[in-house]
Amino acid sequence: MTNPATVLWDMDGTLVDTEPYWIRAETELMHAHGLPWSEEQGLEFVGNELLTSATMMQEAGLSLPAPLIVETLMDAVIAQIRTSVPFRPGALELLAELNAERIPCVMVTMSYRPLAEAVIASCPPDSFVGLVAGDEVSAGKPDAEPYLRGAALLDLDPADCVALEDSKPGLASAEAAGTIAVGVPHLVDLEPRPGRILWPSLVGHGVEDMRRLVGVRSA
Q1: CATH fold label, 6-17+86-218
Q2: What is the C-alpha to C-alpha distance for residues 107 and 147, in angstroms, rounded to an integer?
Q3: Among 118, 139, 141, 201, which lies 20 to 30 A Cα-Cα from 110?
């Protein structure tokens, strides 16, 4: 059976469970300015481009420039990452299997490059051969551009690539790009649809599962 040409990994919520770090950073920033914030509000941000999330915080009353909001949140999350990297169940095992099978991996994230590089540095050596970061695209998820760029980094057809996503905007982006998009829901439920691929977890799924998906696409 044919291997995927590459595996395109979302970061937050798929590779690592940083969403609680983001929600904590948002809450601390809002509270520092005397504004209420809840976990439910934080969950609305899952998968968003960071400037979109910053704009939503401004709409909730935070009177800071959007770039400063993003920088403040990102610095807080990086500090937490340097203390502990919360890998999602099955993620490190899948990375190791892909590496053993010489299937390259590219990270496609709406987090900015400094945070993404901090996470990659915490992964086993040679886990990722490329990175598409949120501060390097003209249109973030759910637009197709991030995943199109991820495939283009290796001069690949997106249809030959498997994408792993946990969020609604991210899965929509991967599907719009024409990848073999796999939804692995975490904090937010993903809507089942005809033809949509959903895995309950990365645990128990590996290269053989991806080969089957490639075979179905090629049939």
Answers
A1: Rossmann fold (3.40.50)
A2: 9
A3: 201
